[in-house]
Every structure is written in C-alpha cells, then in structure tokens.
UniProtKB/TrEMBL annotation, chain A:
Keywords: Membrane, Transmembrane, Transmembrane helix. This is DUF2107 domain-containing protein. The chain crosses the membrane at residues 6-25, 32-52, 58-77. It comes from the Archaea. Pfam families: EhaE. InterPro entries: Prd_NiFe_hyd_3_EhaE (IPR011317).
UniProtKB/TrEMBL annotation, chain B:
This is DUF2105 domain-containing protein. The chain crosses the membrane at residues 6-28, 35-54, 60-81, 119-137, 173-197, 203-224. It comes from the Archaea. It comes from Methanothermococcus okinawensis. It holds the Pfam family EhaG. Keywords: Membrane, Transmembrane, Transmembrane helix.
Length: 84, 230
C-alpha cells in the first residue's frame, strides 16, 4: 500500500509541475520544445493509472501517446514548411 | 474503508487544477499550433478525473476516450494544414501522411504455393470457427482478440490458397465490416452503458449486451488487418 500511495503522489507531482512547465517553461515559443514538455504530464498520468491498477488503460495510453506525438511532429514540420 | 476511496478526492482535485491551468493557458494563446498542443494537456486532466473513480467502468470509459482523442488530433491537424495551404495559392493539396499512403496495389507475378502447410487447405474453416465461438464465450476485450485471430487466420488462409477472393470483394467486405463495427460500438455504449443507469435491476442483461457487443466490435476491427495483404 505504501508503494501505491507514493506512486500516486509522484504522479500528482509530475502532472502538476509538468503542466506548469508546459505553460510557463523556458523556450516555450518553440512548438517542438512545448511538445517534448508534454511527455512529463503524460508520464504523471501513466503513474496515476498504474496506482489505480488500470492495466488496459495504461497499455492503450502508452500506445496512443506515441501515435499522438507522431501526428504532432508531422503537423509542426508541415506548418514550418508552409510558413518558410 | 477501501484505499481507492481515499484516493478519490486528491485525484479529482489534481485533475481540476491541471484542467483549469491548461484552459487558462489556451485562453491567452494566439498561435494555432500551440493551442492544439495545449489541448493534449486538457486531455490528460480529463483522463485523470475519469480514472479517479477506480472501477472497471472507469477503465472501460477511458479506452474509447483515448481512441476518440487520437482521431480528434488527426482531424484537427489535417484541417490546420489544409487551412494554411488554402492561404497560399499555386500549391497542390496534399495529405498529412502522404508518404505512407499506398499509391497503387503491389503485384506479384509468380505463383507461390505452400504445399507443406496442409492446415491452410483443409482445416482453416474449422479452426477459425472454433476460435470465433470460443471468443464469443469469453466476451469483452479478450474475446474480441481471440475472435479476430480466427477471422485473420481464415482470411490469410483464403488469400494464400487463392479461393476466388478478388480485390473488389475485399473492398465490399471492408465497408461491410466497418459498418458492422460501428453498429456494435453503438450497442456497447448506448444499450450497454445507458441501460446500466436507466434500469439497474436488469443489470445482467445489459452487462451481457455490452460484453458481447465489445467482443464483436474488437473482433471485427482487428479482423480488418487480414485484408491488408491482398
């Protein structure tokens, strides 16, 4: 039970401070840096799923998260190509 | 008292804090692409609030939320790119993932025979039927996976032994399976979940409807993978 609670609170900390980092962090004008910063709250969500024992949701979230990063990177590259 | 009940209040609190922070950031944002990226953080907050309930129902609601979220991001990115393209004239309209789309069907001009694998010729129908029936008894995600394995095995075996499945047939079959899967999704969500809330006394019937529809939906969706080969 102790390790469950500590996993949960580590997830909370990563989620809140990761969100603050995405919103107010340094170099946030660059879309790539902002996209990479999103991985930290995503890891917090994964730890919270782990503490709640949501196995299927955790596995699907990991898979979907990598696909979302792929889509965003393509969008950013395309947009910079168009604006250049 | 259960440990999950102690975890409910702080999790919902954290979810609301993250949601309010990211929505405020979206309100002060001017660029399109930054708004789209910040929407991902709002989705994290939504997932955490749903996960706070900590039951199997919460897990079952997270899964369609994830898939719908991915579809939303794909659609919105595509719209964003198209909007930027329409501003500039003289460019041809392209897709977001155009390098990965198949232009024309690959053609194999020599016959491949598999004489060693007798099972593909004689027992493909029996084995796939066995797997589908077993999957129907399992219900849910596991049943859907077993069922789709049966469908995939049948389709791949038919494709290898080339028993009169043409490309047009496959296209019709694909459309039909997609429609069937959509109807099963509606059964799963509408009849299954709404039935729990409206008629809690008859929960066994709705549980069976939801589980069976989920099995058929996952099975038909994964069975589509077998079509890609032909």
């Amino acid at each position: 039970m102790d390790i469950v609670i500590s996993t949960l609170y580590l997830g909370y900390i990563l989620l809140i401070f990761g969100t603050l980092g995405v919103i107010l962090g340094p170099e946030r004008r660059d879309p790539f840096v902002r996209l990479l910063n999103i991985e930290i709250p995503a890891l917090g969500v994964m730890l919270i799923f782990l503490a709640y024992n949501h196995t299927l949701a955790l596995m699907t979230y990991i898979a979907i998260n990598s696909l979302i990063v792929l889509v965003f990177i393509r969008t950013i590259i395309r947009k910079e190509e168009l604006e250049a | 008292m259960d440990v999950v009940q102690h975890m409910f209040n702080p999790t919902v609190f954290v979810g609301f804090v993250v949601g309010i922070l990211s929505l405020l950031a979206i309100a002060y944002q001017r660029s399109d692409i930054h708004t789209l990226i910040l929407t991902d953080v709002v989705e994290c907050a939504m997932l955490v609030i749903i996960a706070a309930v900590g039951t199997d129902l919460a897990e079952a609601l997270i899964l369609p939320g994830l898939v719908v979220g991915l579809a939303e991001f794909l659609a919105v990115s595509e719209i964003l790119i198209q909007k930027n393209k329409l501003k500039k004239k003289g460019r041809k309209i392209t897709k977001l993932f155009e390098e990965f789309l198949a232009v024309e069907e690959p053609k194999i001009d020599r016959d491949i025979d598999h004489p060693k694998m007798e099972i593909l010729y004689s027992a493909s129908r029996f084995i796939s039927l066995l797997l589908v029936i077993y999957g129907a008894f399992l219900t849910g995600f596991t049943g859907g996976a077993v069922m789709s394995l049966g469908l995939l095995f049948y389709l791949l075996a038919q494709g290898i032994t080339s028993k009169g499945i043409s490309s047009e047939d496959i296209k019709d079959f694909w459309e039909a399976i997609v429609g069937f899967s959509g109807i099963m999704w509606a059964l799963w969500i509408i009849l299954g979940f709404v039935g729990f809330y409206l008629f809690p006394d008859h929960y066994v019937i709705f549980l069976l409807i939801a589980g069976g529809a989920l099995a058929l939906k996952v099975g038909s969706k994964l069975g589509l993978i077998g079509d890609l080969k032909f």
